[in-house]
Amino acid sequence: MTQINPEVTVIIPLYNEEAGIEALLEKIIALKFHELYEVMVINDGSSDHSLEVVKKYPVKVFSHSVNKGYGAALKTGIRKANGEKVVILDSDGQHDPAYIPQIIKMLDDNEMVIGTRDKESFQVRTRQVGKRAIRWIGEYLVEQKLPDYNSGYRGFNKELIKGMLHIMPNGFSFSTTSTLAFLKEGYSIGTIPIKVEERVGRSSNVKFFKDGAKTIMLILRIIMLFNPLKIFFPASFIITSAGIIYGIYGYLIAERFSNGAIVLTILGMFLFFIGLVADQISIMNRR
């Protein structure tokens, strides 16, 4: 059984993964991690036999009465965790729990550790274009290279991630949001290469167009919280410049600064000052 006051909590969000969770828990038990760490499964309103499968193993189980989402399950686990360090991994059989000790050790020197998928890892090809687009947007907004930003295999300092739960989504984008949040706050993020296998059982719930668009909007919302000027300043500069150029062109052609040019210039200036206000509001919100 788990220790009374474990230093590490392993959280596994679960939704309709009866085949995958059984394979994962078998590996965890074989490695005797349930005797070293607090292993916690958060059943997010599964409608199959996932809960019955989990109850056969010596791990803690908490259940949602309805399906609230991947992020909501992780929030429940983090709030109930007793460990100072938290490791999360998926329940679909893709993640090998053997990496857990390495992640725990790296958390001594990093506030977050991400399991980055190597070249041999299984990935759905149809999602690669969307992931590259999201990565490009994210790297532009946070002004640095992103690690495997949406990897579901990672570890945190519990107190830090617990203090950010109010800005974390209830959906699948918890991983993306936490990566951006830790980067923007200047925390140290370590990476460890992992091999990800093909998921066991049912196909993924993530849809390319629907969830890809949600992730892009989520990135924009997070940047509005941490660095809104990255959105307002470029827009202000482009619109103001267009107004001035349009005005000069009109003056040279018709010897008058057109009303359209004046409107564009004023709009660009307003956007800049709105951005400054948004930046101050974001600072107060984070505090």
Short recap of the structure:
The chain has 287 residues and is an alpha/beta fold.
Identify the strand order in the major beta sheet. Answer: 3-2-1-4-6-5-7
Name of the CATH architecture of the largest domain = Alpha-Beta Complex
CATH class of the largest domain: Alpha Beta
The number of helical segments is 11
Helix and strand sequence: EHHEHEHEHEHEHHEHHH
β-strand number: 7
Backbone shape: elongated
- In round numbers, the mean pLDDT is 86
The fraction of residues in strands falls at: 5-15%
Helicity range: 40-55%
Question: Please, how many domains?
Answer: 2
CATH homologous superfamily of the largest domain? Spore Coat Polysaccharide Biosynthesis Protein SpsA, Chain A
- Category by helix and strand content: alpha/beta
Identify low-pLDDT runs. 1-5
**How would you sum up the major sheet?**
7 strands, mixed
State the distance separating the first and last CA atoms: 40 Å
Quaternary? single chain
Any idea what the radius of gyration is? 23 Å
CATH topology of the largest domain: Spore Coat Polysaccharide Biosynthesis Protein SpsA, Chain A
Describe this protein with a few key phrases.
287 residues; alpha/beta; Spore Coat Polysaccharide Biosynthesis Protein SpsA, Chain A; 2 domains; seven-stranded mixed sheet; 11 helices; elongated; disordered N terminus
